[in-house]
Amino acid sequence: MGTHVTSLPIPGAWKIENPRHEDGRGSFRECYRADVVNAATGGTWQPRQASMSVSSRGVLRGISVVTGTPGQAKYVTCARGAVLDLVVDVRVGSPTFGHWHREQLDDDHDVSLYLAEGLGHAFLSLAENSTVMYLLSQPHDPASEVRVQALDPDLGITWPPEVPVNQSAKDRSAPRLADAERAGILPAYTQ
Questions:
Q1: What residues does 6 pair with on adjacent strands?
Q2: Residue 1 pLDDT level (bands cut at 50, 70, 90)
Q3: What pLDDT was estimated at residue 33?
Q4: What are the domain boundaries of the chain?
Q5: Which of 67, 95, 85, 100 is nearest to 16 (CA)?
Q6: Whose C-alpha in 14, 19, 145, 163 is 20 to 30 A from the C-alpha of 123?
Q7: Those residues with Cβ within 8 angstroms of residue 10's Cβ, 6 or more apart along the chain or in another chain
Q8: Which sign does the torsion angle of CA 9, 190, 134, 99 carry?
Q9: What is the CATH number of domain 4-183?
Q10: Which of these, 103, 92, 114, 99, lies nearest to 42 by C-alpha position?
């Protein structure tokens, strides 16, 4: 069985399942294949930066999105631990604006997510030292990054109550989605 790609309910987001092959020595899996991802997404996306974050249990990172042209697409994999990974449509004018989709990514299930340019991304670490790997279509530029409050009650994102949330000061002070839209800081939807 090869890599399986499924489109998610938010246009521009896909779930990628990469099969694991195990034997007496351990296991092996492909984490990313450009030909498979590009065939499924209709794109010619090429990673230009690889990044990694390590988070303690309860760390909530995001919602972040890169604005401007070019934007930044992401391919996200959890290499160790477990996270609830969140895709949020923050593209003004999108038919799914304000909608979100959540997937658990962990080191037991060989799942990655691809997020097109303009989609918001967040995750909550469910384990100590959860390690998330990102392939990015553009190098990270903090000046073009916008944050939206992941605890915005209007978004209605349900986080597991048994995991105490720990946000950075930057994430805690992020505006709610409606405030970010009024301020004109969110990306626009383009088909």
A1: 15
A2: low
A3: 84
A4: 4-183
A5: 85
A6: 19
A7: 87, 88, 89, 96, 99, 100, 101, 119
A8: negative
A9: 2.60.120.10
A10: 114
